[in-house]
Design a protein that fits this description.
This protein is mainly α and 156 residues long. It contains 5 helices and 2 strands, in the order H-H-H-H-E-H-E. A two-stranded antiparallel sheet has the order 1-2. The radius of gyration is 17 Å and the shape is globular.
Length: 156
């Protein structure tokens, strides 16, 4: 009697969000490598941690761009914000990102001094996931109920 092994099919995409996207796939390799190197230069990160932080920074920014003008009060965690700063401080590349993914509109960064303690970081992680981006949840829990960013319509 012959038996056949069951072949596992790939997991189905969530019908709401579609397949999970990785921010690494939208960033040119040379830029990605440069920004990972900057994180390793400026923080005690190895290449794995630097890539995780950078990827979540991009996922956050691309989500903020996708929801520009909605007033959602998005906020990154402290670790994700490090990735955000690495992206936006490379101003030429950041302007190109805004051109490509934000209809040419520059997405301003307007940090607040006070941290808001309103659960916005975890809410933001859920919105990032709902937009289809891969979420590295441990990087979002360092400031799980507060965030430093301005909740304005056209800034993050």
């Amino acid at each position: 009697m012959a038996t056949t092994a069951a072949v596992a099919s790939p997991p189905a995409a969530d019908p709401t969000t579609g397949p999970v996207r990785c921010a690494r796939d939208v960033v040119p390799t040379d830029l990605w490598d440069k920004q990972v190197g900057l994180l390793m230069r400026d923080y005690p990160y190895d290449s794995v941690m630097a890539a995780r932080v950078l990827g979540q920074g991009y996922a956050y920014l691309l989500t903020a761009m996708n929801h520009r003008g909605e007033g959602l009060g998005l906020a990154p965690s402290k670790l994700v914000d490090i990735g955000v700063h690495t992206v936006i401080l490379d101003t030429v590349a950041y302007a190109e990102l805004c051109e490509k993914f934000n209809d040419g509109q520059f997405l301003h960064h307007v940090p607040k001094v006070e941290m808001k303690n309103d659960g916005s970081v975890v809410k933001t992680a859920h919105i990032v996931a709902a937009d289809g981006w891969e979420v590295d949840l441990p990087l979002w829990t360092d400031a799980a109920d507060c965030g430093p960013c301005h909740p304005g319509n056209d800034s993050h």
